[in-house]
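Input/output pair, single chain:
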Amino acid sequence: MFAKTLISIALAVSCVATAQAKDWEIYGKINVSAQQSDEGEGSFGELKSNASRFGIQGDYALEDGLTLIYQLEWEVDPADEADEKNIKSRNQFIGLKGAFGTVTAGRHDTALKLSQGKLDLFNDYEADLKSLWKGENRMSDSIAYSSPSFQGFKLLLTHVMEDDADAKSAQSYAVVYGDESLKESDWYASIAMDSDMKGYDASRATVQFKVADFKLGAMVQQQEAVATGEKSDGYMASLAYPLNNWEFKTQYQTLEDDNGISAGADYKLGKNTKLFGWYSSFDFDSKVDSDYLAVGIEHKF
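Output:
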């Protein structure tokens, strides 16, 4: 019932949009794959939605050079769940933008998570960074700040409020340089740190650059469980190469004795539509190894 209500609201809002000046938009993507999974107890097939989503975002000009910005985004699962579990909250916030930068309040990706840019070539799939590393957090009760660009550098800050008398606040910081899409510059780099975010301190350094048509990236991370003091180190490397309508890519990630390797390819059918296929294999020290093979389609709107 909740899902039907949200869809009805989105359709109504879409109709109104055609009759007014558009300072906001409805957007989203549908990403579905047929996947063969082997997690140690035999191989099985499944249809998976890979973070399919829709949302509303916009801005509204105010006085004194200020702009109101907002975003309401939900994850949906067209491949599996058919009840209230089908709708999951993603980034949802309201904020102000001006010469000072941008400040938002609500639910938001942390500065450390944002600092990865587009280095993770298998984001939202089984080999997403979060499969091995801590720090891929989207936090409620967040106040976030993004500074203006100074000679290509930007500062990102996140403060997560306690929300309980017995809880502690958490912070996330990042300094980033360049264009994460590698369109306006050939380099992207960042340094980021979490403080007591979901029970972990973490630090991360990222670099991605273009050489000829190749996109190469590397990242290192150290994470520490606040309660136990246990530290873990890892690194990741990625490589992508476009060829006509194809993009071939591979990625390797470690955390101590755990590691995962992935290879895949995307084929563009149009500006907003692609076919894809990938294979990921994980070798774990403390649990059963796993392997995944998938082919699918993605459309953005």
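Residues 200 and 229 are 9 Å apart (CA to CA). The first helix runs from residue 2 to 17.
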